[in-house]
Amino acid sequence: MASDPTKLNDLEMLSLLALGLIPSMERVVAGEKDPFPYPDALLCGFNQLILTCALRDVPRAQRPASIPEFITTWGVMPFSEWCVKLDVPAGLFTVNDRLLNPECDSRPTQLCQKLSQGEAIAVEVVY
Hints:
Elements: H1 10-29, H2 40-55, H3 67-74, E1 100-101, E2 107-108, H4 110-116
Antiparallel strand pairs: 1-2
């Protein structure tokens, strides 16, 4: 029985993207220009992102057209700047949280590492 991709929540989608980005970016750091074939998790996460964008009426021109485009644009962009609003608990991410660090050869951020391991993300709320 196939799973329904519309039932995957945004945090699960981010976890899949992170899980696939880690080995892909390790291959890039090791010298590969295009780490193809991509890990299954990255393919699934990317497909889920595209489906999420379509279901939330993000114009096709604003969606990443490919995994390399996702990595070089959305991967280094803070979640707060993505053109699709993520359906995650309020305060879960800070305004600058992203999957890849643009200042460090686009290596995975600590958040990306945590998401890839399925760790719960705790946010300290200051009152």
